[in-house]
Design goal:
The structure is a single chain. 38% of the residues lie in helices and 17% in strands. By secondary structure, the protein is α/β, with parallel strands linked by helices. It has a 5-stranded mixed beta sheet. The N and C termini lie close together (11 Å). Mean pLDDT is 88; it is low at 1-15.
């Protein structure tokens, strides 16, 4: 796969899978990479024109002070202890290039799936997500867990804390990287069990569909997977079949 800016023993001799890299609060990390003096402080990245700036990203210290995404700067500034930084797409693009180059050290097939520029991940905060084709890398980097660990360590060396998940297909790896901290590795045998407790809101689909599932009392992917397929399709169409396949980790790569 080319760039697009905006496993386990069960796999056999050649590793077949995808590693998803998920980096939350990417605008903050892109800034702090350049401003080491601000790293020990509560910081937030803001976007918009005065006096209507909104908080788009922040670090852990700011979160502990009660900051949330979409909060106005006026609301966030009540303590007087938060350092604000205007959002810089130039900083973010440079940072994304560094992350991409690090990922290319593990496969020639890397794709940028999400960035703060396209907000593909739709998780409520600006994040970056990349997809790395793991196929044929086992000789160099070991099994899926070793592969994910080495990618995460390489990103930590350039000061980007991330979640990395390796799974048999791309959609499953992206779901897991967005949902679990640190390193996650699942085989084809275990992927459904690992996905089951995730909320249905983790799926990328229309809000109306999520609202329908909520009315039915479907809270997580395990409950979605257990629904009768025919009845699900009759009520919400073919997207029901697609979502159910995602819920059990059987979707094709995007």
């Amino acid at each position: 796969m080319g760039s697009n800016t905006c496993l386990d023993a069960g796999y056999g001799a050649i590793a077949m899978g995808y590693a998803a890299i998920y980096i939350p609060e990417f605008p903050t990390l892109a800034w702090l990479r350049l401003d080491k003096g601000a790293r020990t402080r509560a910081v937030a990245v803001i976007d918009g024109k005065p006096p209507l700036e909104k908080v788009v990203s922040f670090n852990r210290a700011a979160k502990e002070m009660g900051l949330s995404h979409g909060m106005s700067k006026v609301q966030a500034d009540t303590s007087g202890r938060v350092i604000f930084h205007p959002r810089s797409l130039h900083e973010e693009k440079e940072a994304l290039d560094l992350v991409f180059q690090a990922a290319e050290g593990f496969s020639p097939r890397v794709q940028i799936i999400a960035s703060p520029l396209n907000e593909y991940a739709k998780t409520g905060c600006p994040a970056a997500a990349l997809l790395v084709d793991q196929s044929g890398t086992e000789t160099l980097f070991g099994d899926g867990r070793s592969y994910a660990t080495k990618i995460r360590e390489a990103l930590q060396e350039i000061e980007f804390h991330s979640n990395v998940a390796v799974a048999p297909n791309a959609e499953a790896s992206l779901l897991l990287a967005r949902s679990y901290s640190g390193v996650t590795h699942v085989s084809e045998r275990d992927v459904e069990r690992k996905l089951a407790p995730l909320p249905v809101s983790a799926l990328r689909t229309e809000m109306s569909t999520l609202a329908t599932l909520k009315r039915w009392g479907i809270r997580n992917l395990g409950e979605l997977a257990a629904l009768p397929e025919t009845a699900l399709i009759s009520r919400i169409g073919q997207q029901g079949k697609r979502l159910q396949r995602l819920a059990v980790g059987r979707e094709d790569p995007p």
